[in-house]
Amino acid sequence: MDKKKIISSTIVFFITTSIVLLFSGIFGGENVLVGVQGTAAVLFLLTIDFSLNPVKNTIYFVLLELTIGLAAYIASLNPYLAIISTFLMMFYIFYTFTYNTKKPAFLPFSLAFIYMLYDPVTAQQLPKRFLGLIVCGLAIMLLQILANKDRLKKESVSKLNNALESINKQIELVNTNSTERLSLNKDAEVNLNQLIESFTFAINQNKSKVSIDLLKYLSIAQFLDSLNIELNKTNKFTNTEDLSALLNSIKLYVNNESNIDSILDNISVYESKNLENYNNNLNLVVYPYVAKLKRDLQQTNADKIINEYSRSKFFENFNLKNDLSFKSAKFTFAFRGALLLSIGVFLVALFNIENGKWIIFTLAAINQPYLDKANIKLRDRMIGTLVGAAIFFVVYSIVKDDSVRMALLLPVGYAMTYITKYTYSVICITLFALGSISVGANIPFIAIQRLIFVLIGCVIAIIADRLIFPTYAYKYTQSAINKSIATNKEIVDLLSKKDISVETFAKNVQPLIIRNTWLNKYIAYNNTTLNSKDVDEFIYNQNILDALLNLKEEKMVENIGVSIYDLKEGEQAIKTGIIDYIQLPYSYLDQRGIRTGFIKKAKEHGIKIFTRSAFLQGLVMMEKSRIPQYLAPAICNIEKFELITKEFNEDIINAIIHFVTDEADIDYLVFGVDNIEQLKEDMDAYRNKKINTLLIEQVKQHINMLEDNIIFPSLWSNGKKAE
After folding, report:
1. What is the pLDDT of residues 305-324, one digit of tens each?
2. Is the model more confident about 299 or about 236?
3. How many helices and strands, by DSSP H and E, does the chain display?
4. Residue 165 pLDDT more than 70?
5. Could you tell me the CA-to-CA distances from 160 to 231, 242, 309, 432 in Å, in that order?
6. How many Å is the Cα radius of gyration of the chain?
7. Whole-model pTM over 0.90
8. C-alpha span between 521 and 538 (Å, rounded)
């Protein structure tokens, strides 16, 4: 295990234990759980930076702690006050502290409410509890100020350096099949996503506190993120020196060893050398990102960048006005969680269920914004509880001395500081919870009771999640994909207008580009839950499209086209809304484009059609005796075509070409030649008059569809093309 991890975990454990004991000594044993929850909140929130606005946030956390304590006290008075107080408090906590699906910042506060609800105090003891809660609120911000001062800058330097190291190593390995590339790409992705998350949170929470200098780091992170995505997909990249030099200048700037001008100079060198060098996949895509980085680094107005990011809503930090509706995943999650817990609290209080709090703790612990993830957590919690209860039963049945039993809790609590896997964490939590109430207790009874109540909580959660406004990541992801496609179309429509002004671009186009960037971030983020290959493919294609749109924005291209084999690829291209041209194979042996209606559909979307492979790599002109066995199924169709052309007294080459070019919905024919004579022959055929339409109809009627392994040269079994 990492030495630093051991040292830090040990220090955290002893400090936490000391604070809880000190808190108990000052505020009394009845408030020991207040100290536990306060310490948990302090540690939990250290991963989120609230230090940029210390005065405002100090007041906020003090008032929040007091409100949770008051709400818990009211809820403890009777079942009817409990259901109202619990719903209101839980809804606020879930809604306010749901920043994303990875960091459940609501957890320490929701558990704090439940702790105090089931460890109530009298009215006379309430002032002391309130005083303890005030201390907790102050402690949250004190540790924030001490631990998170200049955190955003420090985090930027650290994570950008890590990402740069991973990306540079990937560039070294880009033309190899090294398995190390995948690990390096993932490392860079994790570092950059975490940094972008931190910036987004900081901007949304403290708009006026994020300086232009810090925002330069964000621009660099975005550039590196885009580059990293492309490196994950490309296997061909020449001329790495200029990109490596640019990355080195970025590293020097990040480490305060140079200034912005050094990066801009290297960008100029990169642009000048690669402006017309699009003979490799990576430069084609990276160039627009380099251009965007240049614009961002030259920006001197922080408010413009901040406003752009405020509109992004990447983490769904929605305002109340627009999001109090069941269309919002955040609102739905908060409502479902609050309703479920308030009803549970009401029933436990109404029927006075002994230790029924374990049902409530279970409901709170497994509550998740997206049910795709909740199902996994339910499974892990059930397994962890079963294992933890079994270990507890065996160990505590053997150990009879109460002092030894309590002593055993120390290594369990210490182990919890290391554990990250949820199942193992639940095992420790179960051991700790059962051990805490085991003094003088009937061991088999409390173990079985704990197990039963946890299972009941899981079953209730499963049923409720599916009945009370269920939310699934894949549904919101599909909605975001549809929005991204629609945004693509809006961008293209605006860019297609001639002589678009700088003002119009800044006002109308740029916000759409930003919106689409963050929509795709949101889609990629959700896919960490879904792990969908189709979504991964969409994100990759979208990054390519974004790069092409940037080329269009820079007036480096007028139109965007794709070349396809599979018509499914063509359907995806149509859906993007930005494609001007589609090139696909079409011949008398491969009539998929017309027969399926694909070409007609593309034309209806304003797309021009280029066709290729009219001669299917020369197969249609080969002597029958030379056609390989694996292509033999094509011979029958070739003979039928020859018979039909002979019947109409038509030249074979002329018929092959005009079968394609005479199709009304086909705009252009692309063909390859081996020499000048073939080019002249094909051009002469093209210049001839159109062939008899009856010939075309006969061919369409009598030529059968062939399998993909025949019409796709890439699938020809021996790997060689027909001559």
Report:
1. 666 555 444 333 333 334 56
2. 299
3. 33, 4
4. yes
5. 17, 19, 20, 39
6. 33
7. no
8. 12
Left, alpha or beta for 499 (phi > 0: left; psi -120 to 50: alpha)?
Answer: left
Phi (first) and psi of residue 22, to 5 degrees: -65, -45
SS3 585: strand
pLDDT at 506: 58
What are the tens digits of pLDDT across the range 246-278?
A: 999 999 999 999 999 999 998 888 877 765 554
Query: Cβ distance 635 to 710 under 8 Å?
Result: no
- Residue 5 one-letter amino acid: K
Distance CA(297)–CA(261), nearest Å, equals 9
Nearest Cα residue to 588 out of 634, 647, 649:
634
**Residue 318, C-beta contacts closer than 8 angstroms, at least 6 positions apart:** 328, 330, 331
At residue 331, φ and ψ (nearest 5 deg) are: -65, -45
Q: Which two tokens stand for residue 419?
A: 């554990």
Q: What angle do CA 3, 9, 12 make, to 5 degrees?
A: 140
E strands present in 142-233: none
Q: Report pLDDT for 275.
A: 57
Rounded Cα–Cα distance for residues 250 and 370 (Å): 38
Distances (CA, A) of 281 to 221, 233, 246, 667: 22, 10, 18, 27
**Mean pLDDT score, 342-348:** 95
Could you give the C-alpha distances from 412 to 3, 13, 383, 435, 441, in angstroms and in order?
20, 11, 18, 10, 19
Mean of per-residue pLDDT scores for the chain: 80
**What's phi and psi for 214, nearest 5 deg?**
-65, -35
Q: Which long-range contacts (CB under 8 A, 24 or more apart) does 661-667 make?
A: 661/686, 662/690, 662/691, 662/693, 662/696, 663/586, 663/594, 663/599, 663/696, 665/594, 665/599, 665/600, 665/603, 665/609, 666/586, 666/599, 666/609, 666/611, 667/608, 667/609, 667/610
pLDDT of residue 220: 93
Query: How long is the chain?
Result: 723
Q: What pLDDT does 585 receive?
A: 93
What is d(CA 528, CA 102) in angstroms, rounded to the nearest whole number?
9
Q: Above 50 in pLDDT, residue 665?
A: yes
| Amino acid sitting at position 654 | N
Tokens of 66: 């007091």
C-alpha distances in Å from residue 558, one per residue of 206, 492, 553, 570, 578: 41, 11, 9, 20, 12
